[in-house]
Each structure stands twice: as C-alpha cells, then as structure tokens.
Write a structure and sequence with these properties.
Organism: Cladophialophora yegresii CBS 114405
Number of domains: 4
Low-confidence stretches: 566-573, 699-727, 746-750
Distance between the termini: 55 Å
Shape: flat
Helix content: 25-40%
Mean pLDDT: 83
Radius of gyration: 31 Å
Pfam families: HET
Bound molecules: zinc ion
Protein name: Heterokaryon incompatibility domain-containing protein
C-alpha cells in the first residue's frame, strides 16, 4: 500500500499488510498463472460461495498464503512480465514481522511501460489483451472468494481484511497503469469494494455513516483509502443516530448556541453594528457590507447599490463552527480581525482617493442579516437579497474550522481530500451559497486556495518522471474532489436542468431548520422568494406552507418526483405533504434518493398546480372494486421477518408472464378511508414500463464488449457465471396504488389536448415485479391453473387490464 502517498500530519500511517507465510508448504509463485491453483492442489471452482462459518479456521491461514501468492505476487509477475520474487516486495514492520511493500511499484511500472513502448503495434495489442484478461480474472476470482453463500449482500470473512484491501488496491492501481499506457482503448471495471477495514477506520476518525456512504459512491478503493489516512476529523460532532441515508447530527441547538472566539481562552470584546442601521440600508433596497476601521476596533457599514462598482467578499461558514450570533449583529474582536485580514489578503485594496492600503469590505450573515424579533421584515429583505450578495461579491471566502491548521503548500490531492470532507459540503445552506458564488475560495492556515485552480494544476503537471504516478494522483484528486465537482457542474446548468438535478444535488446535505430549505431551493433555481418569505417562519406550519408555495412557484418537476419519497429508507421522518393536491410531494427535498443518479437519467418535467401533479404513467387497471382487489391479497408469514403482502395477477393474452404487487404491511399502510372505498376505483401506476419488457427483448440487449470478451474464456474454464444467457431477469418497478375518482373521465375541469384526465390520490407505495413461468418442467398453461388455486387466497388468479398509455393522471 505504500505506493500511495500519505497525507501530511495529522494523519494515519499506512495499513500494514502481512506476508502470509505458511511454513509446511510455502507458496512461491511460478507461472503460468492459469494453472497455478491446480498445481498447488486447489480447485478454485470450490471457492465460489463457500460457507464462511463452516470453512475451518485451520485452513484459513493456508488459504491466505495461497491467495496472496496467486492474486498478489502472481498478478504482479504476470502483469509486469518479469519475475517478482517475494524478497523484493517485502519489508520488516516495527515489531519485526515481514510485511508487503509496494514502495517501488511505480518505478517497476515505468520500466514495464518503456518495455511496451519499444514493441510494435501487434505486440502491444497482444500485451494489452493478456493483461486485460488477467485483470478481469483477478477481479473475478477475488470476488468469488468474497461472496458468501448465505447472504449475497455481505462478504465472507474467509480472507484477512489487510489481504483483501491489498488486492483491491493492487487491482485499482494496475487498471490506472493499464489505462495510462493504452489510453486509446481504456477499460473500466466496476468499483471494487471488498475491504471493510476502510469503513471502520473512517468511523473511528469521526466520520458520519452517511458521509462514508457518499465517499463509497464517489471513489474507488484508492480514494477511499486515501481519505482514511487523513487522520481524525477535528470537529467534535458525533453521529450516533446517523445512518447511511441521513445525517442527524450537526444540527444547531438554538438554546445552547455559543459564539466562539479564535482561541478557547480568549475573552475579548464583542464588536457589534447597530441593527437599526443595517435594517435601514436594507429598507432602502441596498446591501449592507462591513469592514473594520483602521484602528481595528469598530465596524464601518457601507451600502452596496446595484449600480455602483463593488469590491467585497462574501463569507460562507458553517454555523456550528461558532461564527454565528443569535442575539446581536456582532462578533468577537479576535474573529473579526482574523476575517478582515483574510479578506484583505485575497486582494490588496486601495481607496481610490488615497494610496494607503485599507481594509476591504465583506459581507457575513451574522452581521449583515438583522437579528431580533423587531426586525423580522428586514430579515426577510436580507434573505431575499442573498442571491444578489453572492452574485455581486468578487469572491466567496469559505471558512471552516477543519481547515484552520492546514497549510496551502500540501499536495493538491491532499488539499482536495481535506477540503471536500469538511462540514461545509454537508450543509444545504452553504451548498446554496457555493452554488450562487462566482468564485469560491477556501481559507487555509496560511492563505486561501481555489479547488478549480488546483484541478488545473493536477491535470497539467508537465514535468514528471512517471506518467503512471501522475495518472494515479489525478485519480485520487478526482475521486476525492467529487462534492466540489458536482457543485460546479450544477452551477453551469440551465434552470431546466437544475430542476432535473436538484434531487441529487441536495443529497447528503443537512439543514437545522426545514423552513430554510425552501429558501435554498428557490435560490438555487433562480426563483423569486417573496411568496415563500411572506409566510412567517414563526408560523407553526411554516415548513409545509413554504413547501407548497415553493411547489406553486417552481411548477415543473421531474415526473419521477412522485416516486421519490418511496425511495427513502427512513420513511417516517420526512413524510409527504398532507394538503389535498400536494400529497404527491415530499415534505422535504433533502434526502438521499437511492434511484440511479437522476441527473444522468432525467425524466421529463411535468406540471404541478394546486390540484396535483399532472402526468402520464404506464398503469394497470384491475377493473374491479377495492373489495374485490382486497380479496386477492395474500399474506406470507415467515419466522423473524415482517409479514409480506402481495397480489398476483396476469394480463389478458399474455400467458407466459404474471405480475406480483408486493409491500410490507408493517411499513406500508393503505391510506384508504370509507369515502375512497365507495367512490373510487383502484389502479396501479408504474415508474418503469415493465409491461413491454419480455425475455426475447432482454436477450436482444447488446452486451458490453468488455463482458463479451471474457465470455468464451469463462466457458472454456467451465465457470458458469453472470454471463448465463438463458435467463429472464424478472423486471420490476416501483409503483403507486392509486384511488381513481371515477371510471369515466370526469376531467372536464382540465383538458389537456384531447386526452381526458383522471384524478387520483396515492393509497400506498408498492413494488411490482414481472415474472415468467419457468417452462423447463411444465408448460405455463398448467402453472396458471396451479397459481389459480393459490392456497393463500383460495381464489383464481385475477386478470387485470392496462390503461391506455396516453392516459393522463392528476395525482394530488
Ligand atoms: Zn451524521
Ligand atoms: Zn476573542
């Protein structure tokens, strides 16, 4: 692992990977690679799905030694094309044990690169094919060893964690080397995440489980390993209630909030401005900015009009760092002096009429947004002006306590990793400030840096001894810089694209006050805040009312918004809005969508108004009453697991397939009352059109070339794996059980084109799976008969219809 650069202190040392030795029978690697297991007496087809619990411990040491020899030393040897004797790759740990060292891996890779460069094109292609096959097989066999037969979602503990990690890292490093050398035909492999040891380190370092999950999505094992070496986070927030889906810490407790000094022992005076004076500037339609006077002991206020040239910096900070103040528009002298100096250092400033250097103006919410109940109206004015503040500001300086001790001379990849793990990237409010800013600059101990210029520096490093090492560092930079990259990508989007992407943009963020959320969303989407701010934040129903105002303001939403809240694993904490016409919408947009990145697979925008969301969806029509549908519900009980409910049905003339609507009664209450029972009919609307998915259609789906490349090999080796061709991957979709107001279009109230529209409300969020009768043993027609007398319900399988594809729904 020591080919990966370590961050500077505070940091953690490299994880040590022992040399797994087994005295009675040392595994010394010798080629050819393919026959090595057999020559050592192992039949690798037995590795697949080994039951980790019953696999005897006595064999595990032996297995680790064999796997290290085969998949570490063997792969190195095969990849580099030269023998890699064990002594060249081992060192001695502090406590005298032999451990693996990869310190000279990049030097070896460069030699390998030069060797390849001297060959002709045909030979190069031959080398490339050979190492591609090797990398694929390495990944495949390691995966095989890691898969537990009992639970496919967990990995077996058959191999020691350091070994798993060293194989993951070696594989990822060799893929980078391969792609750096054969850049015209790059190969990508799925993210490799076998080693749990990184996750444990991050938890020990004070990471929130939701942040770890985010890093796991953004980075390969290299980025993950790198951030795990950064050492503990220096904030004291703990995350006991957090899950992979949501962070529940870092919320501001208004009662306990304390403004902090630069150092803990300081008790310097607070410098305040007159809230009245700030409010006056806002009432005049201007923006207040501040600077310290030359004596550095009082604040001078200055207003920025929209027409005058501006030269001020906006400060963005996380309130939990202590730069907020709930009682007055002031901050301790020590803090203001420090901020003033940091702002001055960004850009030396002379007054036009004098040659003397003078303090530059800045804007910080703590001082420039009026506090106190007497200034509620002016507070709203200040918030409505935020977009303007960030647009007019020359730059936005981001202050984070986690960066106070970090020097700007560190490597760009380290700065990227440290900056992107700060709480600033986790808060909705600061994300929105970042998105509004023209130029965001991060303050470090001795200066400020821009991530975008670091990115340029990393991408254009001209003189380096090793191209492969540079490619490796670039990969770490890109992986750790994803939160910033995504923010910048959002900034460059059009308003139309922003609403498509907002679901993924606000993921991983937290906010202390839900009523702030609509302000941030509206600002990020360039909407006018007045209808939202017209609702007092002290109104007991402020959040829900402001969300309704936001929906009416924005009007257009991705079609799949109606399904989004069903994605949430913590359904209870942020349910949907409850008002008629708005029940399709979540109370909060700040949650983790588990769907495929909505930004990359956008759904069309559809219109929302006070009646509901207007859209078309592929839908089933049970063509019967609620009472009849309910008679088909089958409940399956199993020991220790919650009851599962389902309704099976078929479509007319579609005799090879049947459908299964399923839900967990414990989590999914049918919200259906007597009125709905009597006056509505059921329908099932699908997120994905699984009706048109057939086995024949699936087989025609072209396979990716990299998959096809290895199909023959796996057949030759007698491995039956996921390339199995004769299979129907039962299509499935999220779905809404709808109560439709009437069978016949009663939509005289809203005609869109010539299509009638049906009013519907959501009864439950369910899952629909399309299944195929396996005709291997008996024909489908016989099975329909068996299914027809399903013991669970005692009723024949119902036949549902399909609503015409152009049917319009108004879901409210
Ligand atoms: Zn958390
Ligand atoms: Zn102080």
């Amino acid at each position: 692992m020591d080919h990966i650069p370590l961050p500077q202190a505070p940091n953690s040392d490299h994880l040590e990977v022992p040399l797994y030795e087994y005295d009675p029978y040392p595994y010394i690697y010798s080629g050819p690679w393919v026959s090595y297991p057999e020559r050592c007496g192992w039949d690798y087809s037995e590795f697949y799905g080994m039951h980790a619990e019953t696999f005897p411990n006595s064999v595990r040491g032996l297995l680790a030694a064999f796997v290290q020899s085969w998949l570490f030393f063997g792969v190195l040897d095969e990849f580099l094309g030269v023998p890699c004797p064990v002594p060249d790759w081992t060192a001695v740990s502090k406590d005298g044990r032999p451990i693996i060292t990869t310190a000279h891996l990049f030097a070896k890779l460069e030699e390998w690169h030069h060797g390849i460069a001297s060959r002709d094109e045909a030979e190069q292609i031959e080398v490339r094919n050979r190492i591609d096959h090797l990398l694929d097989r390495m990944r495949y066999f390691h995966h095989m060893l890691m898969t537990s037969l009992t639970d496919f979602n967990t990995y077996s503990n058959l191999l020691p964690e350091p070994l798993n990690l060293s194989l993951d890292v070696l594989h990822a490093t060799l893929v980078i080397a391969r792609n750096a050398v054969f850049a015209q035909a790059t190969l990508s492999f799925p993210h490799y995440h076998h080693a749990d040891v990184i996750k444990h380190t991050l938890l020990q370092n004070g990471w929130c489980p939701s942040d770890i999950f985010r890093v796991y999505q953004d980075a390969t094992v290299l980025g993950r390993y790198y951030v795990s070496r950064l050492g503990p986070l220096n904030n004291i927030t703990s995350h006991p209630q957090c899950t992979e889906d949501a962070c529940r810490s870092c919320q501001i407790d208004r009662q306990a909030y304390q403004t902090k000094h630069v150092s803990a022992g300081c008790d310097c005076d607070m410098i305040c401005v007159s809230t009245d004076a700030v409010a006056e500037i806002l009432r005049e339609g201007s923006i207040p900015t501040i600077r310290l006077n030359n004596g550095m002991n009082a604040i001078e206020l200055e207003q920025v009009g929209s027409c005058s040239p501006t030269n001020f910096t906006a400060i963005s900070h996380v309130w939990s760092d202590g730069l907020g103040n709930l009682h007055s528009n002031g901050l301790p002298t020590c803090q203001l002096k420090r901020i003033q100096k940091q702002v001055n250092d960004l850009q030396p400033f002379r007054q036009p009429d004098s040659s003397a250097l003078t303090n530059r103006n800045f804007w910080i919410d703590t001082i420039c947004v009026p506090t106190g109940s007497d200034f509620e109206a002016e507070r709203s004015l200040a918030i409505a002006k935020m977009v303007k503040v960030y647009r007019l500001a020359k730059d936005v300086l981001i202050l984070s306590s986690e960066l106070h001790e970090i020097d700007s001379c560190r490597g760009p990849w380290e700065l990227s990793a440290r900056i992107n793990r700060t709480a600033w990237f986790r808060r909705l409010w600061t994300l929105h400030e970042g998105i509004l800013s023209k130029r965001s600059i991060f303050q470090l101990r001795d200066g400020a840096v821009e991530l975008s210029s670091l990115a340029v520096e990393v991408e254009t490093d001209p003189d380096s001894d090793s191209n492969i090492y540079q490619a490796f560092l670039r990969a770490i930079f890109r992986e750790t810089c994803m939160p910033f990259t995504k923010m910048e990508a959002f900034k460059s989007m059009t308003s139309h694209d922003r609403i498509q992407a907002i679901w993924s943009a606000v993921q991983w963020r937290t906010t202390s006050y839900l009523d702030d959320e609509t302000i941030c969303l509206a600002n990020m989407l360039d909407l006018d805040l007045s209808t939202i701010l017209a609702i007092s934040r002290h109104d007991p129903e402020a959040c829900e009312k402001r969300m309704k105002a936001f929906i009416l303001l924005q009007r257009y939403f991705p079609r799949d918004s109606v399904f989004e809240s069903s994605h949430r694993l913590d359904l209870s904490s942020v349910p949907n809005l409850t008002a008629q016409g708005f029940r399709w919408a979540p109370k909060s947009f700040v949650f983790r969508s588990t769907s495929i990145d909505p930004a990359t697979t956008p759904t069309p925008l559809v219109e929302a108004d006070s009646a509901g969301l207007h859209l078309s969806l592929p839908s089933f029509n049970p063509a019967c009453s609620w009472a009849e549908v309910m008679e088909h519900i089958a409940i399956s009980k199993s020991e220790g697991i919650a009851d599962a409910a389902s309704i099976k049905f078929m479509l007319p003339l579609d005799w090879d397939y049947y459908y299964d609507i399923s839900w967990l009664p414990e989590d999914t209450k049918w919200e259906i009352n007597d009125t709905l029972l009597g006056s509505t009919i059921p329908a099932v609307a699908l997120r994905d059109d699984i009706i048109s998915v057939t086995k024949e259609g699936q087989d025609r789906v072209p396979r990716r070339p990299s998959q096809r490349m290895f199909e023959l090999d796996s057949q030759r080796e007698g491995i039956s794996n996921s390339y199995d061709l004769d299979r129907f991957d039962g299509a499935s979709s999220e779905a809404l059980l709808l109560a439709v107001s009437a069978r016949h279009a009663m939509t005289q109230e809203r005609i869109n084109g010539a299509e009638p529209e049906y009013r519907a409300s959501i009864v439950a969020r369910v899952h629909v799976r399309k299944r195929m009768f396996s005709t291997y043993r008996r024909p489908a027609s016989d099975q329909v008969k068996i299914l027809s007398t399903d013991a669970d319900t005692g009723r024949p399988i119902p036949i549902f219809g399909v609503w015409p594809a152009q049917t319009r729904w108004c879901i409210g």
